[in-house]
Amino acid sequence: MITRTLGKLHFGDRATQSRVPPRSRRCSARAAVGFGIVTLVAMSAALAVAMETVRPEWRDPEYGCRLHQLQTWKTGSPGRPLVVAFGSSRTQMGICPAVMGFPDEPGSPVVYNFGYRAAHPFRSWFQLMRLLDDGVRPDFVLFQLAQAELAVRGPAEKHLQSIAGRLNLGDFQRVAPYTVESAGLFQEWAAARLTGWSYHRELIMSDRLPAWQTVQRRDDLYWERLDRYGFTPHQAETLTEEQYKESYERARRSHAKSLLGQSVGQTNDQAIHDLVARCRAEAIPVALFWAPEGPSYRSWYSPQARALAAAYHHQLAQELGVAIFPAPDHLVDKDFSDGIHLLRRGAEKYSRWLADAHLKPWLARQRK
User: Quick one: which of 95, 190, 192, 323 could link to 165 by a disulfide (CB 3.0–4.6 Å)?
Assistant: First the structure.
């Protein structure tokens, strides 16, 4: 009897201990949710601070990685003039400074490739402004021209829409004079900040956890192939005949309007003029250069397109008073993957020609 009674009492105690008032459970749940929200906000804020300060490559790897490399060149080789080339993926895959023949010694120029994927002239201006504002001053600037890219139209928000999540607040101030309605761009930027860890996940993995990515995916990340001079070689060494045919036809379709003849977009034209003005104010000599193109690609230009390009070349020379290097005419179709992006062998061939025929003589004149 006593045993049964004790047993019941013991059972009753356990039941009493296991019952938690509903209000307490609700309070615990709210506390857990609140803690999770606070943690998420704190982590997002920490990520935002890191991307603005010590880890700009997490926010914009193509810019941040190059910024770090240029800072290293500046501090490690202070006696060597820094020549920085700005342009799109044509420059990114086309200028190989390592083969240009500049000695690795004090006083000899360092050529650095600051090509940025899809950087039409306005975006290239944007990258240089970022660089100057971050305290890295080139001694000389090369700036790419390409007819299809010059023809891109629209205000700044259209040019930057695809990389809204890579911007910072300072970037909005830089591009404000070029914008018409930046609210949509700001909303995309804000959404990327609020979801920072997911939006930038792949960029962070590229830097901190590269082994977690497939080899194929790493080949797709342009900044993973940077050499110490910023050159990003094309991922393919060569292409099959079928691949050549497909890639050339794809380029022809995508550039059909500019091949027929289109005038230069106002935003791009203004950016070129503003870039030269800013560099001139800081005593940085500037030279423009026409990007190389394959013989087949060049043959697709209409007479009107050729006339427009020649007229704009003349206009820039007259208005800006800067050197403009022409495109080469000795490259062959198989130096390119598609008529506009050079394969490694083509990039090396073009870079040697550019250095010997134009860059070295121009630098010699500037340094007298």
Answer: 192
Residues spanned by the domain of 352: 57-153+234-366
* Residue 90 CB neighbour total at 10 angstroms: 21
User: Nearest 10 degrees: CA dihedral of 125, 126, 127, 133?
Assistant: 110
Identify which of 137, 150, 196, 189 has the alpha carbon closest to the alpha carbon of residue 168: 189
Helix (H) or strand (E) holding 274: helix 266-281
Chain segment 83-141, per-residue pLDDT in tens:
999 999 999 999 999 999 999 999 999 999 999 999 999 999 999 999 999 999 999 99
CA–CA distance, 230 with 62 (Å, rounded to integer):
10
Calpha distance 145→292 (Å, rounded): 10
Between the two ends of the chain, the Cα-to-Cα distance in Å is: 113
From the list 70, 71, 73, 119, the residue with the least C-alpha distance to 92 is 119
Tell me the per-residue pLDDT of 275-318, one tens digit each, with 9 for 90 and over. Answer: 999 999 999 999 999 999 999 999 999 999 999 999 999 999 99
Question: Which pTM does this prediction carry?
Answer: 0.85
Nearest to residue 149, comparing CAs of 276, 290, 277, 358? Answer: 290
pLDDT in tens, 32-77: 766 565 554 555 555 555 556 545 666 899 999 999 999 999 999 9
H helix runs in 19-98, sequence order: 22-52, 56-59, 61-76, 89-92
- Residue 82: inside a domain: yes
In this structure, what CATH number is given to the domain that contains residue 101?
A: 3.40.50.1110
Query: What span, in angstroms and rounded, lies between the C-alpha atoms of 78 and 240?
Result: 45
The tally of domains found in the chain comes to 1
